[in-house]
Amino acid sequence: MTSFLKKIRVIETANFVSGPYVGQLLADLGAEVIKIENPKGGDPFRSLSPDGYSADFCSYNTGKKSVGIDLTKPEGRALVEQLAKTSDVLVENFRPGVMDRLQLGWDRIHAANPRLVYCSMTGFGRDGPYQHRPAYDSVAGALSGFFSQLLDKDHPQIVGPALCDAVTGLYGAYAVLGALLERSQTGEGKRIDVTMMEAMIAFLRQPIMNYIFTGQTPVPLDRPAKSMCFALVCADSCCVAIHLSTPDKFWLALLQAIEKPELNSDPRYSSRKLRVQNYLSLNDELQPIFQRKARGEWMAILDKFDVPFAPINDFADLVSDPHAIQAGIFPAQPGVPSLGIACPIRFDGQRPTDVSPAPRLGEHTPQILGELGLPAADQDRLRASGVIA
């Protein structure tokens, strides 16, 4: 399989993560994604490397085509509008009103191409008291309640990757795919609005619904306790994760693995409900047991007894993991790290295989503008005046 969205052309005017993540997911499925970048520096993630080709930029831009166009100049906006007339999707993540001021808003673009799917990614949407606030990953994580499930209130520290950006991008991508499916039946494009705040609220539906049902505010250990999840340190200081979930068979299998069947008759742990209630004391029981053997030994034992487990890998462990290697999720070759991460989806047993590196700034400008019929002489003039790069 070489391409799933082979005939779909996407214009991406977005920067940073949530908008480019939508484009990345569509590019993974084979769509032609044309990334519109400011000729003066391009996507801000480029600036994280002296050569404008940072790992952060490549993470969300593999397989795209870069066209350098200055949207603040009328001739630049006219080029994007012309591109929109022959495209299927436009993705933008400016604050509300910016695209209208650039004369590239929904009303104008929809009139020019009624079939185009127009996806706006914002922090808070087009109305409401927060609509004009700037928003980034941590803003959405804080406002949605997500961080309340992660932080120690006595020593708060934001940690981890930009999950809120990625979640919002996933919602945006599946909305675009849904709109394209409907268009195949109606011939009409849709206006899509995805907000970071609402995406994260939807992502947190389980703890939020628990609060709505019970009136009890969830705390960070609620979900691990309910699901019987443990992170245990082994004799070699490496960690292993165990997730027993709801079936009693996994609890009993763990007791066999650690040779502690008597814990099942302990009045604190004799039922799943009691184990949830006494989660911290059970964790304290397991920790010293796991410190008696190295992680590799425990992995072999847990595997033998069919306990759900995994080593808590760092990324050095991950890229050398035999299953990850066998899956082919890391297509990067020596000297070409910009190939990034492979599409995690297979169709009929195959994943899309047309993989190209993330683009240099303006790398595809001559090609794409040439396809629009713009002569080389006109391109040279626009390049000299800073409209394109």
- Mind summarizing the main beta sheet? 6 strands, parallel
The CATH topology label of the largest domain is Rossmann fold
Mean pLDDT comes to 94
Strand residue content = 5-15%
Provide the spatial order of strands within the biggest beta sheet.
3-2-1-4-5-6
> Helix content range of the residues, please?
40-55%
Description:
The protein is α/β, with parallel strands linked by helices and 389 residues long. The protein folds into two domains: 9-203 and 359-384, Crotonobetainyl-coa:carnitine coa-transferase, domain 1 (Rossmann fold, 3-Layer(aba) Sandwich), CATH 3.40.50; 222-313, 2-Layer Sandwich (formyl-coa transferase, domain 3). Helices cover 41% and strands 11% of the residues. The protein contains 18 helices and nine strands. The chain has helices at 18-28, 55-59, 74-85, 98-101, 106-112, 137-143, 163-186, 196-203, 205-214, 222-227, 248-258, 272-277, 279-290, 295-304, 315-319, 322-327, 365-371, 376-384; strands at 9-12, 32-37, 65-68, 89-92, 117-122, 191-195, 229-233, 239-243, 309-311. The chain has a six-stranded parallel β-sheet with strand order 3-2-1-4-5-6, sandwiched between helices. Helix 1 (18-28) crosses helix 7 (163-186) and helix 7 (163-186) packs across helix 8.
List keywords for this structure.
alpha/beta, three-stranded antiparallel β-sheet, 389 residues, 2 domains
Explain the layout of strands and helices.
Elements: E1 9-12, H1 18-28, E2 32-37, H2 55-59, E3 65-68, H3 74-85, E4 89-92, H4 98-101, H5 106-112, E5 117-122, H6 137-143, H7 163-186, E6 191-195, H8 196-203, H9 205-214, H10 222-227, E7 229-233, E8 239-243, H11 248-258, H12 272-277, H13 279-290, H14 295-304, E9 309-311, H15 315-319, H16 322-327, H17 365-371, H18 376-384
Parallel strand pairs: 1-2, 1-4, 2-3, 4-5, 5-6
Antiparallel strand pairs: 7-8, 8-9
Helix pairs in contact: 1-7, 7-8
